[in-house]
Amino acid sequence: MNGTNATGHRQRLKERYLKGSIDGFHDYEILELLLTYAIPRRDVKPLAKTLIRHFKGLKGVFEADIEELSAIKGVGWNTAVFLKLLKEAAYAYPLEEREARGAIRSPGQAIGLLEASGALKAGEKLLALCLNSKNEVMEVETIHEGAIGMSSISARSVIEKAIRHNARSLIFVHAVSGGLAPSNTEKYLCRELSSAAAAVDIIVHDYLISAGRGFLSGREKGWLK
Fold first, then answer.
1. In the prediction, which pLDDT does 77 show?
2. Could you tell me which of 69, 94, 213, 221 has the fewest CB atoms within 10 Å of its CB?
C-alpha cells in the first residue's frame, strides 16, 4: 500500500469509527486504528495483524510489557510505550469515575447520581447500579429500554451481567415517563430479580421507580424482604 492509499485507508478507518464506534471492527482493525496515532505515514495494518497473531489477541497485546512489544519488528520504543499508556489510561478512567461516584447510602443518592449523569433521560428504561462491598458504584448497566412486560426481562441474564461486573449488591431503577403507581408486573419483576440475585449471594438493596423529580422505593413498600 503506497503513501496515498495508506492515508486514505486511515481516514476510512477513522470515519468508520466515528459513524459506529468500534462495533463490527476486527481486533486487528482496532489495533490498526490505534497504531495510526503512534506510527504516522506508514501502513500499519500488517503490523497490527502480526501483533494480534503473536500475542493471541488484543488482551495479549495490552498485557505484554514494553520489552516484549519492542521485540516485534516494526514496533519502536515509542509505539510500545504508547500501547502501555493506553492500557494504564483505560484502567485509570473507570477507577477515577468510581471514586467520584462514591458510596451509595440512600435511595435519593442513587437517583441523584443517575440524574447527574443523564442516565434517566431519553425515555423509559430499567437500570441496574452494580455496587462493590463498600456500596460504591462500579457500573451502571442498562437492563431494558421501553415498557416492561411479563416476558421482556430475563432475571437470569440480569444477574449474569451483575456477576460479570463482580457486583456484591444491586440497586434497580426504573425510569418512567408517567406516574409512580406501580403495576403488579413491576412488583413481580422486583421479587424475581431479588430471588435470582439471592441465589448467587448478591444483595438487592432496592428497586426504585423514578418519574420526574419523584421516586418510589420498593423496599419501603415491602416488595423486598
1. 92
2. 213
